[in-house]
Amino acid sequence: MLDLKLVRNSPDVVRHALINRNMSTELIDSLLEYDKAWREYLAEGDELKHKRNVVTREIAKLKKENKDTLSKIEEMQGINSRIKEIDDLIRDYKSKIHEIMLRIPNIPSSTTPIGKDENDNPVVRVVGEPRKFTFTPQPHWDIGEALDILDFEKGAKIAGQGFTVYKGMGAKLERALVNFMLDVHSRQGYLEVFPPVLINEKAMTGTGQLPKFKEDMYLCTDGYYLAPTAEVPVTNLYMDEYIEKLPVFLTAYTACFRREAGKHGQDTRGIIRQHQFNKVELVKFVKPETSYEELEKLTLDAEEILKLLNLPYRVVNLCTGDLGFSAAKTYDIEVWVPTQEKYREISSCSNFENFQARRANIRFRTPEGPQFVHTLNGSGLAVGRTVVAILENYQREDGSVEIPEVLRPYLGGEKEIRKEDLT
RNA sequence: GCCCAGGUAGUCUAGCGGUAAGGCGACGGUCUCGAAAACCGUUUCUUCUUUGGGAGAGCGCAGGUUCAAAUCCUGCCCUGGGCGCCA
User: Tell me, in Å, how far CA of A10 is from C1' of B71?
Assistant: First the structure.
């Protein structure tokens, strides 16, 4: 959420931000109108309440002295009915204002390039070189099925389209990656946490998933949402709190759940886009003046996983048209997928500045008073997509897949995945 | 799911119809060569402002009763304890 005072005092800054995000600015006009009306009624209401407080004290005093209070009480009854009217109006305007404020996206950082869509995202760096195959590389879904480590039919049978069962070395590889990532991030100084993935509405609003993206979320019958990313439970660990010791670095593995509404027809084969997937997340709470430096470091911490796995990747700086709702700046890390001859998103590292902190009310103390922290997060990494990258980049002509060296200790020293490894 | 006991400012606690009290912590000031102690002040949100400050809100959340609600009433949420059920 933005600072209402910023919208009030510099509406053009907000309008420009919306325009750069390819969004309409109409909301701002009605917001300013409601804000004006709200403050007018607030002033009138406060004046009447001041009077009520004064008279109420007089009545208390008169009663103590056993004097007549009837005329005062009658006077108050008139004031009270007007206060009630005004309070209703104030509440109404305030909720309208709040409703709009929750739907205004963050203002992009000055280092976020202006652009229309993903084609305008500048490449920041390219690391590693795509392997040159001496044979025709197979897509991961074919490799997975041939090795009997990915079972799409069984996933569809027990759940539906967009769910996959991992078997044997596939299941072990997924688990190994989770442990490997958590270990690396722990070494980098992040505290490991393991949070719930059923989340209440308040927390979902705190990080910005609600109210705007409700249709992308799974809602359980008793009002809980399934976490679409560990960002939600982990960032909200400090909801409504003061953080006494900054910075705080956390890492968490969770399952993530997304309805992928409106994404039908994209990545229908394989495990790139699933309704349920695993992710290891990095979350930082920092002082405002360090947040951009911390974003660089966080991105490098996520990249470290790809470097250790020896997977080629690149980093792009998302332009205003491609930037997420809550983010001020985002680096996407994209891993090379040989059969698509493309880099595909495997991590998204963002600085939200105080956008989430204001929504979730996460503050720290300064001599000048309480201040909102800056929050950051990034995937370190999406596990399923890492499996895709390993299967495709490490495949051999005979259909087996080499296991990256750093993962072997996590897989009992195994060096490869072959058909007969299945048990 | 049922029965108790609770939820008060950053934290701990008092108040149980009449301006939310006190301890601790943090920050600022006085004192000091410096520090500690002591003493004084501040501590959340909103709004107005002539920048000194004024006003309003705020006692888990939402309503209600009342001239007046932390206090009384209703519903809900959360925490602790007991009972039941249960992997």
Answer: 44
Taking CA atoms, A247 is separated from A164, A186, A191, A305, A423, in Å, by 38, 15, 12, 22, 46
Secondary structure class of A397 (helix, strand, coil): coil
What are the Cα distances from residue A15, in Å, to A8, A32, A320, A346, A354? 12, 12, 13, 32, 19
Q: Which residue's CA shows the smallest distance to C1' of B17?
A: A60
Strand-pairing partners, residue A395, are: A401
Distance, CA of A315 to CA of A61 (rounded, Å): 71
Could you give the C-alpha distances from A151 to A161, A265, A277, in angstroms and in order?
12, 20, 15
Alpha carbon of A6 to those of A1, A12, A15, A122, A338: distances in Å? 11, 10, 11, 29, 46
Q: Which residues of A are known to be catalytic?
A: 258, 273, 345, 348, 385
Residue reference for tokens 């004046």: A47
CA A53/CA A46 separation, integer angstroms? 10
CA of A30 to C1' of B69 (A): 36
Phi/psi region, residue A198 (left: phi>0; alpha: psi -120 to 50; beta: rest), is: beta
The three-point CA angle A43-A44-A45 to 5° equals 90
- Token readout for A397 is 């002509």
- In whole angstroms, B4 C1' to A250 CA is 39
Per-residue pLDDT of A224-272, as tens digits, reads: 899 999 999 999 999 999 898 889 999 999 999 999 887 877 888 999 9
Footprint of strand B on the protein (CB under 7 A): A 4-5, 39, 42-43, 45-47, 49-50, 52-57, 59-60, 63, 69, 73, 76-77, 80, 91, 242, 363, 365, 367, 369-370
Instruction: State how far the Cα of A407 lies from the Cα of A49, in Å rounded to an integer.
Output: 68
Three-state secondary structure call for residue A242: strand
Q: Kindly provide the residue ranges of all beta strands, DSSP E only, lying in A41-171, ordered along the sequence.
A: 123-127, 150-151, 165-166
In eight-state DSSP terms, residue A133 is P
Nucleotide nearest to A3 (CA to C1'): B46
Please, which positions of strand B sit below 7 A from a protein CB?
Answer: 10, 18-19, 26-28, 43-48, 54-57, 63, 67-68
- Structure confidence by residue, pLDDT tens digits, A318-375: 999 999 999 999 999 999 999 999 999 999 999 999 999 999 999 998 888 899 999 9
Q: How far is CA A60 from the centre of its chain?
A: 53
